[in-house]
Specification:
It comes from Rhodopseudomonas palustris (strain ATCC BAA-98 / CGA009). The protein contains 20 helices and 13 strands. The protein is an alpha/beta fold. The protein folds into two domains: about 190 residues, Periplasmic binding protein-like II (D-Maltodextrin-Binding Protein, domain 2); about 200 residues, 3-Layer(aba) Sandwich (D-Maltodextrin-Binding Protein, domain 2). The strands form four sheets. A five-stranded mixed sheet has the order 2-1-3-12-6. Strands 8-9-7-10 form a four-stranded mixed sheet. Strands 4-5 form a two-stranded antiparallel sheet. A hairpin with a 2-residue loop joins strand 4 and strand 5. Helix 10 packs across helix 19 and helix 18 runs antiparallel to helix 19. It is globular and about 65 Å long.
């Protein structure tokens, strides 16, 4: 009896060792732990149920998209990359230029009925660079308008007929601000990473950052003038305070701001912070003109950086699951982001959106989605900082009354940082 027990125990131990040896470890790293830690933990738990042969290990999260990119660029040199990395949508280009991520076209082509799992061309387009797919989108955000309905009522506004234009929003903001010295009419999260809310009003008017061959600034035309003048009006007419993004969120959630314009990614956090203190409603981004108006997709994508083939194959299973229906649905339920996966939106999240209409606002804008633009060349990240500095001169009030002059200065400075030849711009 004892011999049989020892033999059985030995076989169990051997089987356990064999299973551990057969497991392929995939090391994964993602940004913004305050938004995504619980999300990735829950997806990993579901993934383990269907892929026991793959062990997902998390590295300490990146604090931001900027840190994520800089860290991967350094780790590519020292050969210390994770197998899978989540990066800001506007950071794909710089990583592809350094030949860091693996192309996914072969994996995608080998999948049967991939469209039935909710994958589609627009998902591939977001992660395409130099004609190849290098990333799949995980969490997508678009800019939306957050409204404190209680303050709107107090200001005499019609909560059933809220304004949908910048002119209307500014008129309402003035009324809300008139409620008292401790109340803000409107805030605009202009300092979101990557000049996201500078690109939004330019793209919404049908404009672009650069011309077609990326040799010349194109945001200095009517679209950019409208965008810069509008940001200036937020200060001069709307009385917008000079706050950073977290402070804007906190002030709005405390019931001190009538209208706040930011990313849908803030929705869950903001709703939790409000805690039922007032009625919140979200609306679409204002003044998106037809037929060419678009909005930049924010959020993050997932890339495979593993070099070993077995690791890459296992990493592909991870990428598929995280961006597939189940992973995408978990992501939407635990954050304010929306999934680009069709099955997740149409099937898994149908009841969720019915119960949470504020979350559906961004989904209703999906047809307007375009790429979050990344500037070309070695100065791409520097250009982002230069634009931010010029926008700050408006928001701080220093140059709020001369938006056209700020735009001219910004155009000159960005043009000087662009690659000098068409070839370099590519």
């Amino acid at each position: 009896m004892l011999k049989r027990w020892i033999a059985a125990a030995a076989m169990t131990l051997v089987a356990g060792i064999a299973h551990a040896q057969q497991q392929t470890e995939v090391v994964l790293q993602f940004p913004y732990p305050e938004l995504f830690s619980e999300t990735h933990k829950r997806i990993a738990e579901e993934f383990a149920k269907v892929h026991p042969e793959i062990k997902v290990t998390f590295r300490a999260p990146y604090e931001s998209y900027e840190e994520a990119t800089q860290k991967v660029l350094r780790e590519a040199v020292t050969n210390q990359l994770p197998d899978v990395t989540f990066q800001g949508l506007n950071r794909i280009r710089v990583l592809v230029d350094k030949t860091i991520p693996a192309p996914l076209d072969g994996y995608i082509a080998a999948e049967k009925d991939f469209d039935k799992q909710g994958f589609h061309q627009a998902m591939y387009d977001i992660g395409t660079a130099s004609g190849k797919v290098y990333a799949l989108p995980f969490a997508i955000s678009l800019p939306i308008v957050y409204v404190n309905l209680d303050l709107v009522k107090q200001a005499g506004g019609d909560v059933n007929n809220l304004p949908t234009t910048w002119d209307g929003l500014l008129d309402l903001a003035k009324k809300v601000k008139a409620l008292g010295p401790d109340t803000n009419g409107i805030t605009y999260a202009w300092d979101i990473t990557g000049n996201w809310l500078w690109q939004a009003p330019v793209f919404a008017r049908g404009g672009t950052m650069l011309n077609a061959d990326e040799t010349k600034v194109a945001f200095d035309g009517p679209e950019g003038q409208f965008a810069m003048r509008t940001i200036a009006r937020l200060v001069t007419e709307g009385g917008m305070p000079n706050l950073d993004q977290p402070s804007m969120r906190a002030t709005f959630a405390a019931g001190k701001t009538g209208i706040h314009i930011t990313s849908t990614s803030d929705l869950k956090k903001t709703t939790d912070m409000i805690g039922g203190k007032f009625a919140l409603k979200t609306m679409a981004f204002p003044d998106v003109v037809k037929p060419n108006g678009r909005l930049p997709a924010g959020g993050n994508v997932v890339l495979i950086t593993a070099k070993d083939k077995a690791k890459r194959d296992a990493a592909w299973e991870v990428v598929k699951f995280w961006t597939g229906p189940k992973g995408a649905a978990i992501m939407a339920e635990t954050t304010g982001y929306m999934p680009p996966n069709k099955v997740a939106n149409d099937v898994y999240l149908k009841d969720f959106y019915a119960k949470n209409p504020n979350n559906y606002t961004a989904v209703s804008q999906l047809a307007l989605l375009t790429k979050w633009y990344a500037f070309p060349g070695d100065n791409g990240l520097k250009i982002t900082d230069v634009i931010k500095d010029h926008l700050n001169s408006i928001v701080s009030g220093a140059r709020a009354k001369e938006p056209d002059a700020v735009l001219a200065d910004m155009t000159r400075d960005v043009q000087n940082l662009l690659p000098k030849t068409v070839g370099a711009a590519k």
